Amino acid sequence: MASLVGQATTVAPTQPDYVTVLLGGGDVCFGTTPTATFAAQFRAGMDALFAASPDTKVLVASLWDFESLRSAVLAADPSATFPFCGAFFNAPVATRAAIMAQVEAYNDALATECATYANCRFDGGALFAHQWSAAEVGPVDHFHPSVAGQEMIADVLWDAGYEWGTPATTPTSKDQCKKGGWQSFTDAAGVPFRNQGQCVAFTNHTA
Asked: Is residue 207 very low, low, confident or very high in pLDDT (cuts 50, 70, 90)?
């Protein structure tokens, strides 16, 4: 994921209104990245983006369910092979279970880190929760999404994305108040917070 900073630096000068982040496959397929490193690399990318384009809204997709994708392919074709990401798809059950636990840890890290930025929204695990069909998987490497799979991802992330023009909601943790996050929330009466301290005090009171 080290390239996220480079991509953010490239995109930020254009001042995009909306950015979708979908990452983590390489961290699974090419040697499992420690969760702390994964989180730090994501944070560095978001810092680079928001430093140059603070008003950009970012939707972060969860890593999808690798096991669901594998099962869909094999259910349609029991003789299918997996030339890509063999570290997972060709591994025994116990190894795949350990990797899936790491995928969930990555998703937890994305949710936690994203919540610290005012204009970052995690998909809530929507893409991870999707159960793949064989038609959604490309037939060449049995890993990358087909056209139908790309459409599915677009639909899932659209549903999990921003609801433009809807009122702000109340914060549920003090971390959501940090780095300007307080500006995106209101109290229970719908009144905007005046500053970060007021937002934090609200979460402490309602916890």
From this structure: low
